[in-house]
Amino acid sequence: MRSKAEIISQLTNPGVIAVVRAQKKEQVIPLSEALLAGGVIAIEITMTTPNAIEAIREASAKLGDRALIGVGTILKPYDLQAALDAGAQFIVTPICRTEFVPLAHTANKPIMLGAYTPTEAQTAFEAGADFIKIFPADSLGANYIKALRAPLPHLKIVPTGGVDLKTVGDFFKAGCVAVGAGGSLVSSKLLQEGNWAELTRLAGEFVAAARAARAK
Known about the structure:
Blueprint: H1 4-11, E1 16-20, H2 28-37, E2 42-46, H3 52-63, E3 68-72, H4 77-86, E4 91-92, H5 100-106, E5 111-115, H6 118-126, E6 131-134, H7 142-149, E7 157-159, H8 168-173, E8 179-181, H9 188-193, H10 196-215
Parallel strand pairs: 1-2, 1-8, 2-3, 4-5, 5-6, 6-7
């Protein structure tokens, strides 16, 4: 079983977290295999996925030794606990619900709390959040992250929402420890077509862009 420190290390290397809003539970295993083939090991299965808890349970059982299967869009404590019981390795919420932190940490799992403003980001940090999810990132941009980190350099920021291949490098250069890639990586069109080869190709491009930005 991975420790919380090991999970955090794997979330930030290569630092691309796939945000999966699958259209049906049966897509989760093949899309996860495609992401893994492209080098993306962190897979966030959102609660908007039909039968999300069961999808997490299946993915954790089949892929848990090779992938980090997490849960996203957590809004309620009992969903968080159900996801942990199903094998989720990390927790993500788009909102600043500080009461979620002890639930995750009791299970020795990292948690990412959502924030939009400096006050929300610092509140999440002081509550013990391992990461701060800046959401939606596309309306703020990399310059906002850079400005935010100037007075708050201790924040481990993960922008999500609108991160794509054109902006991923800028976010890493601004000091982000990882990025969440949703529709720009696991698009609804790609899911409808079941084009797993294309998903593998895109995953590889995201990983390459992340590594290139960090190398500079």
